[in-house]
Structure formats: C-alpha cells, structure tokens
Amino acid sequence: MTEAEHSALEKQWRLEYQNHRYLDHATFEELQRRSEDVFRNSYLCGRDGKNYYKEDNTKWACWFTDILEELRLRKAQEQLRTPAFTCYRNAPTAAELWDGLNLKKNTYLLKFGKEKYMRPLHQEGVFAVFPATKYNDD
Asked: What is d(CA 14, CA 68) in angstroms, rounded to the nearest whole number?
C-alpha cells in the first residue's frame, strides 16, 4: 500500500469513526489500555523473540485510528503514552524445542500459563483468553 493510499484509508476511518463514536463513553485510562492491547496485538513474536508487524494489519490499524480519533476529538491525544514492545527472551529456545517435535503446521494451539489456570482447561475444557496487557512477562 502506498503512503497516499494509506493516508486516504486513514481519513476514511476517521470519518467513519466520527459518525459512530463507540468509544465516547470510555475513560482516558480505558482508551490507554485499549491502545496498548490493539498495538501489541498488531505484531507477532518471531522465533528470535522480537516483534514483527503482521502482514495484514488493516483491522488493527483501523481500531488504533479509532482510538486516536477519539482522543483527538477530546483534545487529549498528546496524553497517550506510546505502548512499549515486549521482548520474549525465551522464544528462541521455545522455537528450537518445537522444531524437534515435527508437528504439522496449523494443527495445534499453544496456551501457556500457571498450572492452577491450565488444570481447568485440561480437565474441564475451560478456556480463557485475555488481552495482551493482562499478562506480565517479567
């Protein structure tokens, strides 16, 4: 996508958001949290533990633009903190371990967590997914 095409798309998204302000009830803190979640979900963690922009990021870019437009309409966009990238230091080791299993691509789902949260999943099929900001990787 060219810069001109991206600019036109962003303008269209802003106009669409202005006509349907679904975030107007959100507090600044909620918008900050949402921006962090959207930002982090628009990237993939590579085998090297670094973050890479997803190839088709259109929906994430649109949602992030909605947040920015809501903040602009409130004259509060300058207050938004830029989300920080998370580096996953164990990703290279994990990638090496999975390579040795020779699993067919797209035939499994990985869920990591503490045993007390994984046991209900294993025993009862109870499964929960949370936004990226819910986790603390330190």
From this structure: 9
Query: Is 119 a domain residue?
Result: no
pLDDT along the chain (138 residues), means of 10: 89 97 96 91 86 85 95 94 80 86 83 80 78 56
Q: Which domain holds residue 88?
A: 3-102
Q: CA-CA distance, 133 to 138, in Å (whole number)?
A: 12
Asked if 83 contacts 39 with a C-beta cutoff of 8 angstroms, the reply is yes
Question: Distance between CA 53 and CA 36 in Å, rounded?
Answer: 15
Please identify which residue in the block is written with the tokens 């649109």.
62
Total domains in the chain come to 1
Please report whether residue 115 resides in a domain. no
* H or E, element range at 121: helix 115-124
The answer for 31, left when phi > 0, alpha when psi is -120 to 50, beta otherwise, is alpha
Q: Which two tokens stand for residue 12?
A: 């269209």
Inside any domain, residue 53: yes
In a domain, 107, yes or no: no
Predicted TM-score (pTM) above 0.85 = no
